[in-house]
Each structure stands twice: as C-alpha cells, then as structure tokens.
Amino acid sequence: MKKQTVFFLVFVVIALAIVPLFMNPGSEFGGADGEAEGIISEVAPDYQPWFSPVWEPPGGETESLLFALQAALGAGVIGYYFGVKRGQKPA
Amino acid sequence: MKRKNLFNALWLLLALVLLNIGVAYAKPEQMHIMEGFLPVGWAIFWFAVSIPFWVIGFNRIRRTMTEKPESRLLLGMTGAFAFVLSALKIPSVTGSSSHPTGTGLGAILFGPFEMVILGTIVLLFQAILLAHGGLTTLGANSFSMAIAGPFVAYGVWKLLKGRTSDNVAIFIAAALANLITYVVTSLQLALAYPDAVSGVMGSFVKFGTIFAVTQIPLAISEGILTVLVVNALKNLNAPELKSLGFAGAK
Q: Could you read off the pLDDT of B138-158 as tens digits, one per residue?
C-alpha cells in the first residue's frame, strides 16, 4: 500500500468521527442506554429488569478511566507487537 | 498523490458527508443488550446457542497455540485490536455514539472460532468492569458480536478472496461483520420484545433501522482500520501470515 493511500485512509477515519460533531450541535453523543430502555418500555410497558450489574463504575469519571485503560492496554499490546516485528525484520 | 486520486478522494468524502446528512435525523441506540434487559428464557436460550461455539473456540485456540507457538503474539495483538476498538465510542451521525467491534481482523487471520473466544473476553471485561452489556446478556451479546460478526467476516472473506483485491475483500468483510452485529442485536431484542401490533418483524424494523443507521459510518471506519492493520502485517510479517494460511500474503 502506498504511503499516500495510508494517509488518505487515516484521514477518512478521522473525518468520519469529526463530521458528526458538526452535524448535531445540540447533542451530547451519549451511549443512549436510556433510549434503548425507552423503546423497550414502549413495546413492553410492564417489563422489569431482573438483574442489575454486579458492579457499576460510581460515575462518569471512573467509567472514562476504565475505558481509557482498556484502550491504552490494547494499544500498548499492538504497539509492542509491531515494535517486536519491526526489530526482527532484516534491515 | 496524483491529481486523479485526489479527485476521487474528494468525491468519496462528499458522498460520505451527504450520507451523513441524510441519516442525521434517525434516533440513536446502543450496541450491547444491557444487564437484565433480556427476559430469563431468552437469556438462557442465547447462552445455550453460544456455549458450543465457546467450547469449539477454546479448543481451536489451544490447538493454534500448541501447534504454532510463534503465532501467540499475533493472537494477542488481534485480541488487543478488538479490545481497543470496543473502547472507542465514536460520535456517529445520529447524534449518539457507538463503537466498532474489531472482530473482522481475527476472523480473517485465524478463523471465526478463535475470534469467538477473543470477542467474548472483551465482552466479559466490559460487562464486569464497565457495566456495559451484562453477565445475564453475555450469551446474547457474544452471539451477536463474537459469533455472528466473525463468521460473517470469514464467509465474506472466503467468498471474495481472489475475486477482487485483498484490500477490498478485507474492507467489506470487516465492515459487514460490524453491521451484522447490530442486525443480530436488533433481532434478539425484537424476538424478546415483539411489537403488540406488528409482531416480531415490526419490532425488528423498529430496532433495526435505528441500529443500522448509527452504525454505517462506524462500519466504514472499522473496514478501513482492518485494511490498514493487515497491510502493516503484510509489510512486517508476511511469513507468519503465510503459515496461518492467509493466502493474501506474498
């Protein structure tokens, strides 16, 4: 793959994430749990969830900490893999 | 970049923006079924469906690790790819966020059963630590993300391989794996919550249209990211890809 193509593809991925921000100025871009619940309660008004999460992050900050941790761990492993392979490749 | 390429690129971008505007008014939705939100019977049913895949997947992974110990690191990297992508809640056109799944890569490189296990581990992590998805809904969520997704990716990849360029085949396989995850989730919700008037189909359309729209741009992103990773692998580690039977490796 040519370098230009790679740059272009990366640009498209970034654009796909940024463009929506300008299209929905009033939105908070929530995970929309509430809306899923909304539809369910519309179709089945009597439904009661019968099990709740064993543990929930106490708040948004802790939750974003854990999500950041998840992404960082994954990215670390990917970076390690490519680093090792790069080092093994004959110059 | 050649002028013609730049021109094509601008057209593609314009098309994407138009697509975005066209779907901007649909309602948002979340990917995994929340804890406790599947009636007991359905929760058990989806566990029963998923368990055979887990058993086979577990054996496949163990076999791969003993027969090709050199591929352990790649297996770890593939899992990490799904791990990262699942953590990235990317803003989508509908004004809500959703995330890619990253399951196409492992299915293409190793096979669908290996990816079943990796995907389920990601779901388990998110269910326990993040209250995202759930333990009672793990069977259903793993069927959609860790079973349906990888199998679609694998099937599409096998079908298109050799008929078009590798990159196009990988892109379509990974993007469809992402989309099918949401289609299956909608179907699971529709089966559990059929519409009083229009039944399961009516409910499916209700959940499905919402899901699909939010997900299209993310499916495109996921397809592109998977193509980029496979190309990086081809550059650095072609022999190992070949030993896994990845025919695209030179």
A: 999 999 999 999 999 999 999
- Buried b / exposed e over B170-191, threshold 16 CB at 10 Å, is bbbbbbbbbbbbbbbbbbbbbb
Distance from CA of A38 to the nearest CA of B (A): 10
* Preferred mutation among A6, A77, A84 to probe B, highest tally of B CBs within 10 A: A77
Threshold 0.90, pTM exceeds: no
Residue closest to B75 by CA, chosen among B114, B29, B122: B114
Residue of A47, A55, A68 with shortest CB distance to B128: A55
State the complex-level ipTM: 0.84
CA of B13, closest CA in chain A: separation in Å? 7
In the numeric block, which tokens belong to residue B123? 């779901």
Residue found under tokens 């080092």: A87
Q: Does B225 touch chain A if contact means CB atoms closer than 8 Å?
A: yes
d(CA B224, CA B123): 23
CA distance A85 to B133: 35
B73/A84 CB distance under 8 A: yes
